[in-house]
Design goal:
455 residues; alpha+beta; Acetylcholine Binding Protein, Chain: A; 2 domains; five-stranded antiparallel sheet; 7 helices; 13 strands; rod-shaped
């Protein structure tokens, strides 16, 4: 009994499908026997045909900032009523819908106004769905290339707005009118993009009067709001630049006799130039400088200033014996005030071990004099035979006195020159430490400001 009913149901389904197939063919012949797709399907030419437009954003294929072209994959649905494609479904065995090629029926000439496609046609020819009340629904997938004005002022933390404007190319508002199916594009089937985050895509209807014509032309503009995902640029452009920029103040900490102070600044400057070129290659040529470009320029300016100051300080450090004494204002302000703030100790001392004795090391002349006096502490004179003899030699007394005075004067001059050299070196060391902390603070605040835009 069950097998019998299954057989009856199968036979009935086959008979119904065959009947629908015969009635569909008959319906197609009846509908298009006197039909033309060259004219608007209205009974009166004064009537307006209403077209409902719905856009579904499926994917953002590419965003070319340099050429300012947005490539998207869209599903476009257009719905309108055709006055000549109606029938009574009772006359065709209850058949209420059929699907036929879209080239058979009249189609609205809706195009993307701001298209940037070379071929101007990247859509697929699909079928339309006809209902017995004359409604025509045409779903069409399309890959569109639209012009988009890209503002890179806050790159890579920028938000872009790209407009997609759809409208009829030849029909004015008195012949064809456009309506929104939804308040915004459908994003339910959107495939997430790795670089851009879609914030929304609202739709708005506009009626524009062009200078060439007196009739109104309606259009529907979809505004795509995009926010750039900045993680890639933070880890590949910003953080390396920050790390390099913190190397510039360390050039002040290098010893002046190392010979690498200027080389470090030039190397950092070259590295920042490479990063600047990488950013410039991907940005459109415009008057608006990107935020990351401003950061690079500020950092390069800081590195250039630090290198120039390093050369100036090295010149102070290598002042020779002929240098003038340190001015009183520099001694008071730099050696006394700034030295305590920057924790600078005497030249030759480190910050961990400070000599408790205030004695200065003996110079070569003092060592020789000490060794000489150590051989004869009481000033006793000896003859060539090793016998001591007393008394003074009156004839050589005046010459010896002159020699002693000359040696003492030379020693004092040399000692004063060494003191001047030491003071200038301490001035250079204090300035090195001061500018090191100053540029560290500048690099830190610039990094905080650039990262604050990402929050």
């Amino acid at each position: 009994f069950i097998f019998y009913h299954l057989c009856i149901s199968l036979i009935w389904t086959i008979v119904c499908l065959g009947a629908h197939g015969r009635f569909a063919q008959k319906l197609l012949n009846d509908l298009f026997s006197n039909y033309t797709n060259a004219l608007r399907p209205v009974e009166d030419t004064d009537h307006i045909i209403n077209v409902t437009l719905q856009i579904t954003l499926s994917q953002i294929i590419d965003m070319d900032e340099r050429n300012q072209i947005l490539t998207t994959y869209l599903w476009i649905r257009q719905v309108w009523n055709d006055a000549y494609l109606t029938w009574k479904k009772e006359d065709y065995d209850g058949l209420d819908t059929i699907r036929i090629p879209s080239s058979y029926v009249w189609r609205p000439d809706i195009v993307l106004y701001n298209s940037a496609d070379d071929e101007f046609s990247s859509s697929m020819e699909t079928n339309v769905v006809l209902r017995n009340d004359g409604q025509v629904m045409w779903d069409q997938p399309a890959i569109t290339k639209s012009s988009c004005s890209v503002d890179v002022a806050f790159f890579p933390f920028d938000v872009q707005q790209c407009h997609l404007t759809f409208g009829s190319w030849t029909h004015n508002g008195n012949q064809m009118d456009l309506f929104n199916a939804l308040d915004s594009a459908d994003l339910a089937d959107f495939v997430p993009n790795v670089e851009w985050e879609v914030l929304g895509m609202p739709a708005k209807k506009n009626v524009i009067l062009y200078g060439c014509c007196s009739d109104p032309y309606p259009d529907i503009t979809f505004t795509l709001h995009l926010k750039r995902r900045a993680s890639f640029y933070i880890f590949n452009l910003l953080i390396p630049c920050m790390m390099i920029s913190f190397l510039a103040p360390l050039g002040f900490y290098l010893p002046a006799d190392s010979g690498e102070k200027v080389s470090l600044g030039v190397t950092v400057l070259l590295a920042l130039t490479v990063f600047q070129l990488l950013v410039a290659e991907s940005m459109p040529p415009s008057e608006s400088v990107p935020l990351i470009g401003k950061y690079y320029i500020a950092t390069m300016t800081m590195v250039t200033a630090s290198t120039a100051l390093t050369i100036f300080i090295m010149n102070i450090h290598h002042c020779g014996p002929e240098a003038r004494p340190v001015p009183e204002w520099a001694e008071r302000f730099i050696l006394n005030y700034l030295a305590r703030i920057c924790f600078v100790y005497e030249v030759g001392e480190n910050c961990l071990e400070v000599t408790s004795s205030g004695k200065q090391p003996l110079s070569q002349e003092e060592s020789e004099a000490t060794s000489a006096n150590g051989a004869n502490p009481r000033g006793t004179n000896w003859d060539v035979n090793g016998q001591a003899w007393g008394g003074r030699v009156e004839d050589n007394g005046a010459g010896a006195s002159l020699n002693v005075e000359f040696i003492a004067s030379s020693y004092q001059d040399q000692r004063a020159a060494q003191l001047r050299i030491g003071e200038w070196r301490k001035v250079a060391k204090v300035m090195d430490r001061f500018f090191m902390w100053l540029f560290f603070i500048m690099a830190f605040f610039m990094s905080i400001l650039i990262l604050g835009k990402a929050i």
